[in-house]
Amino acid sequence: MDIATVIGFVAILMLMLIGMGFNLGPFVDVQSAAIVVGGTGGALLMSYPLPVILKIGGIMKNAFFNSLPDTGIVITTLVSFSEKARREGLLALEADVESLEDEFMKKGIQLIVDGTDPELVKSILDTEVSFVDERHTVGKGMMDTGASLGPAFGMLGTLIGLILMLGNLSDPGSLGPSMAIALITTLYGSFIANVVFTPIANKLGYYNSREVLSKQMVIEGILSIQAGDNPKVLEEKLKSFLSGSERGAVAPKEGE
């Protein structure tokens, strides 16, 4: 679970409740919710194919329950494979393939164990990374679209409320409900954009960049193992993907 996402979301809700004086009554309006939530949902349906829309729950869930790839473990694993391959040959890695939890690394190691041409190995793995990036970009794009549509439907609701109010100036009793629609739709639009869609889109974008980085490290490591590079050289190559603080966090090998 991404505890930062959970803490941030709960903190925003609590601060808003404090701002409302823990009195939700004046801020609940079914008509406003229908305009903003229903309108945003309808526009998303118009923007994306139905099979993609049906995945929206899983996409949003990733912002709360995803976990970053541990680049330190990636480096340590690949260096250990490099040492074993130099001692015993590439075929010796076959015994380790099944125990790998990282399916992408498992696929790469299996390819070099099978004697696949290095250029073909790179092409296959690069293609997989491209499709992973594309899938994640679609999910993030859907969140970005929701973030732009929410305030737009909030503004539509505001205009509807104002028109209703101006059309019934002779009826003082209708002015309050019409003004409520005008203002609460703006609130709802801002809420779903700034509390839901935008933070989730940002978190998904960050997760995607880290996963792509991790997979690029795996590709570089696997090609180096296949080329028979010195394990120390391989380690330095992989560390070059990381920031200074991240390099320091990579566990040193025993004996160093």
UniProtKB/TrEMBL annotation:
Subcellular locations according to the entry: Cell membrane
Main location class: membrane
InterPro entries membership: Flag_MotA_CS (IPR000540), MotA-like (IPR047055), MotA_ExbB_proton_chnl (IPR002898)
Membrane-topology annotation of the record: Multi-pass membrane protein
Domain MotA/TolQ/ExbB proton channel per the UniProt entry, residue ranges: 98-216
Cellular component per GO, a single term: plasma membrane
GO biological process, one term: bacterial-type flagellum-dependent swarming motility
Transmembrane feature ranges: 7-27, 33-54, 149-167, 179-201
Family annotation (Pfam families): MotA_ExbB
Keyword field: Cell membrane, Membrane, Transmembrane, Transmembrane helix, Transport
PROSITE patterns: MOTA
Record's keyword annotation contains Cell membrane: yes
Family the entry assigns: Belongs to the MotA family.
PANTHER family attached to this UniProt entry: CHEMOTAXIS PROTEIN MOTA, MOTILITY PROTEIN A
Protein's recorded name: Motility protein A
